[in-house]
Amino acid sequence: MAVRVPRPLRALGAIRTAAHRTDAATPAGRDRAVDALRAFAILGVVLGHWLVTALVADGGALRTASPLHFMPWLAPISWAFQTLAVFFLVGGHVATKGYASARARGVTYGRWLGARLARLFRPVAAMVTLWTVAACCLLLSGADTGTVHTLVKLALSPLWFLLVLAALTAATPLLARLNPLWPLAVVLHVDLVRFGLGGPSWLGWLNLPAGWLVPYTLGAAWTRGELEGRRAGRVLLVGGAAATAALVAWAGYPASMVGVPGAPVSNLDPPTLAAVTFGLAQCGLALLLREPLRRLMRRRLLWAAVALVNLSAMTIFLWHQTALMATTATGLLAGRLPGLHTVPDGPVWVAARLAWLPVFALGLALCLSAFRTWEQPYGSTRST
Question: What angle, rounded to 10 degrees, do the helices at 109-140 and 313-331 form?
């Protein structure tokens, strides 16, 4: 008589089998720490947005608010989840390495760049199409114009990051040997003129490319083998953290590393010197974690989870705000729910928002099942 295996055990066995196959299919020379850092950066951005973005139901409209505005003591949350510098570090490393490999194989710059940009922007087409249709339907149905504007702006907000990353990727042949001190000097001088000498506020937008060039060119230096020792990581971590603390304590920079509605200065929009030095500290920590991550990634289940995130990295990044908004809109059917539609002005909201995170994750999983096919399959021969 056959013994019936309980369903949970069968599911666990299937997961272990899939993890074994993923591990076996991974080339021996692949640096799994790169994929782990990318997954960490993506999930940091997602959790950060879910924790600090509130859509407050105000009559028949929705407006954005931030718990950091009402509870400044939550600023350390932004230190943990504002991980864009790590993403640009990995992006610079991977793009520089990929371009060198493409040249060695005789692949032209145009073909290489076209392949990389296709991987970035194919998922964008699906999101822009859906939100264009959704916005038109909402407006035609009589939805509040301000609410539609809020939702569309929030949904499309990740695109600025992709545009900057695409521009830096296109310039990789020119940036491959650029010293990170040059863009850092640009950010320093822009902030000095803007804040110290009363220069025009638009000057800050020069920091949008310059600020993210710093971690990107650090990634290129990593590819060149200049950051292999632990000394480089320690210098970046300690120096970046000390500089950021000094800028916040004595130079008037905000403690929050993300934008706060109503604040006179945002560290991220555009990037300030404090955001860049904070990013240097993050990059230093990432470099120090490479060896521990390589050891951890030998565990099949952990590696399978990281590979899964990398498989759908752009889809996760593009659709996580939509998952939040879909949950918020659906929740309105049940009334004004704490942590979802209420003003984020106290610990009760924080506790309620933490309880909503699994629901946001479920919404994101539904988006993944619908749109992840727009991304190319997980590469078997390169870190992408």
Answer: 10
- Model confidence pLDDT, tens digit, residues 66-118: 999 999 999 998 999 999 999 999 999 999 999 999 999 999 999 999 999 98
Q: Distance between CA 325 and CA 314 in Å, rounded?
A: 18
Parent domain of 361: 31-374
CB 113 within 8 A of CB 98: no
Cα dist from 71 to 75, 89, 163, 311, 332, whole Å: 8, 31, 32, 36, 25
Q: Establish if 341 belongs to a structural domain.
A: yes
The total domain count for the chain is: 1
CA atoms within a 13 Å half-sphere pointing along the CA-CB vector of 217: 18
Identify the DSSP state of 372: G
Kindly report the pTM of this predicted structure.
0.91
Gap between the Cα atoms of 48 and 282, Å rounded: 15
DSSP label at residue 197: S
Cα 234 from chain centre: 23
Task: Please provide the size of the chain in residues.
Answer: 384
